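Students often ask why inverse folding is considered easier than folding. One informal answer: many sequences map to the same fold, so there is more than one right answer. In these notes we will look at a single instance of the problem. The structure comes first.
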C-alpha cells in the first residue's frame, strides 16, 4: 500500500488544517477507503471513512474532524474510531466513538501519511516545529477473529477535543507508555493500554532512576522493536507499521531502509531524548 509525503499551507485563503483534512480524504479514497461523509459546510469540518481490511469484507470506521479557536490560536484535528456509522449522527456521536485530538496549524503543515486496508497513520510537523502523530484503525491482534473481532485503536496526542495548541509542552505521543490519548477497543469496550517497549524502564530508561538505560544502535544499524499494547495480565497486539527506534545518534526525519522497506523517524513533539522517537513504515 502507498504513502504520501508533502505539505499543505494556507494559500488561497483556506487554512492548512482544513487542507490536511482534504488531503487525508483524497489519499484514502484513492487507495481503497470509502468516504461516508465529507462535510465542509460547518467550521468543524468532518470526514468519516470505511475500510475493508485485508479480507476485503470488513467494516472499519474511522474519521477526522477539525476544531479550532482563533482567539486561542489553535487549529487541530480530532481523530476518531467508531463501531458503525449512522448518517444522521454527528461525528462525535457515531456509535462507539472514541476521539483523540491532534494539534495542527492554520499555517504550513508538513506531513507523512501512510495507510493500508485496515489502518491510517499520520505524522505532522507544525509550528516551531514540533511533531504530532496519530493512528486510527485496526492493530495486529494477538488473537483469532472469533476471539477479538474488532481490535481497533484510536491513538492521538490529546484526550478528546482538548483546547490545546501545538506549543503546549506537556502533551505527548500516544505510544509512549500509558497515555490518555491512546485507546484500544476490547470485547468489553474501550480500554487504555500501555505500550511496550516505552513502558519498560529496563529498555527505555524512562524515569529519573533509569535515565541512563536505553537502547542504541550497533555500528550504525538500528533495531526496530514492535509497539505492543498490554494491560495487567493481557498482551493485546501490536500497532501496525510503527516501531520503537532509539534516538541515540539519531534525528527526526531520518530515513532508513530495512529489507527493502522504508521508514521515517518521527519524534515526540519537541523532545529529543534517546526514548523520544519512533519509526513509521512508509507503506
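Output (designed amino acids):
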Amino acid at each position: 500500500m502507498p504513502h504520501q509525503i508533502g505539505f499543505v499551507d494556507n494559500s488561497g485563503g483556506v487554512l492548512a488544517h482544513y487542507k490536511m483534512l482534504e488531503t487525508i480524504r483524497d489519499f484514502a479514497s484513492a487507495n481503497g477507503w470509502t468516504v461516508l461523509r465529507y462535510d465542509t459546510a460547518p467550521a468543524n469540518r468532518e470526514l468519516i471513512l470505511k475500510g475493508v481490511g485485508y479480507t476485503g469484507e470488513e467494516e472499519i470506521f474511522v474519521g477526522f474532524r477539525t476544531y479550532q479557536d482563533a482567539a486561542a490560536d489553535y487549529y487541530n484535528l480530532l481523530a476518531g474510531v467508531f463501531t458503525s456509522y449512522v448518517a444522521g449522527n454527528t461525528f462525535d456521536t457515531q456509535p462507539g466513538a472514541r476521539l483523540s485530538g491532534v494539534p495542527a496549524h492554520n499555517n504550513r503543515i508538513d506531513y507523512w501519511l501512510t495507510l493500508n486496508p485496515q489502518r491510517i497513520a499520520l505524522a505532522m510537523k507544525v509550528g516551531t516545529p514540533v511533531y504530532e502523530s496519530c493512528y486510527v484503525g485496526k492493530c495486529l491482534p494477538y488473537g483469532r477473529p472469533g476471539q477479538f473481532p474488532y481490535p481497533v485503536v484510536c491513538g492521538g496526542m490529546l484526550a478528546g477535543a482538548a483546547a490545546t495548541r501545538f506549543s503546549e509542552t506537556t502533551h505527548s505521543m500516544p505510544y509512549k507508555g500509558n497515555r490518555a490519548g491512546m485507546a484500544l477497543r476490547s470485547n468489553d469496550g474501550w480500554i487504555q493500554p500501555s505500550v511496550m517497549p516505552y513502558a519498560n524502564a529496563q529498555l527505555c530508561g524512562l524515569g529519573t532512576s533509569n535515565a541512563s538505560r536505553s537502547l542504541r544502535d550497533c555500528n550504525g544499524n538500528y533495531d526496530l522493536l514492535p509497539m505492543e499494547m498490554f494491560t495487567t495480565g493481557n498482551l493485546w497486539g501490536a500497532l501496525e507499521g510503527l516501531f520503537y527506534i532509539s534516538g541515540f545518534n539519531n534525528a527526526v526525519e531520518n530515513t532508513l531502509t530495512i529489507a527493502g522497506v522504508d521508514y521515517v523517524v518521527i519524534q515526540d513533539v519537541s523532545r529529543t531524548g534517546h526514548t523520544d522517537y519512533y519509526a513509521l513504515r512508509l507503506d
